[in-house]
Write a structure and sequence with these properties.
The protein is α+β, with helices and mostly antiparallel strands and 156 residues long. The chain contains four helices and eight strands.
Length: 156
């Protein structure tokens, strides 16, 4: 397996509320399997699945709605390594390579984290700085890069 193949393809979403751009708070959810770890919704891309298909599927699976408008896409794939406690359960992968999207919830969207296979036990809308302060240390560089890019583009 090549080094490139050791990173699981993944899609991730920075979700802004339906009041965007007037309010630029972003959705952050607390994982139910890792103590006090907050993150953006994300998930693996199935073999043969298009990235945007995975985006909408993962939204539905993780927050109970896919009623969003895609505002922007991070221009490149960005990777991180799993910490040892997570790497063990994710073998043969050593990390994830992600495609990030900035999406806006439709006014009619209803968030429901109590999905068929819940991954989160809480969520809130926070500022960019709060998201960085609450995020897991192993994802912090990725979050900083992606959020910085969307801020530079005038989107956050």
């Amino acid at each position: 397996m090549s080094k490139k193949n050791l990173y699981r393809p993944n899609v991730a979403m920075i979700i802004v509320s339906s009041s965007y751009p007037h309010t630029k708070e972003i959705f952050l959810a607390q994982r139910n399997d890792l103590n006090d770890v907050w993150q953006f919704p994300q998930g693996g891309i199935d073999e043969g699945e298009e990235v945007v298909e995975a985006l909408f599927r993962e939204l539905l699976e993780e927050i109970g709605t896919d009623r969003v408008e895609v505002i922007a896409e991070f221009p490149e794939w960005i990777s991180y390594d799993f910490p040892p406690r997570i790497a063990e359960s994710m073998k043969p992968f050593i990390g994830q390579t992600q495609k990030y999207f900035l999406v806006k919830l439709h006014e009619s969207a209803t968030i429901n984290i109590h999905t068929h296979k819940p991954e989160f036990n809480d969520y809130k809308f926070v500022t960019v700085d709060e998201a960085l302060n609450l995020s897991a240390s192993f994802k912090k560089n990725v979050y900083e890069n992606v959020l910085s890019y969307f801020k530079k583009e005038g989107l956050l």
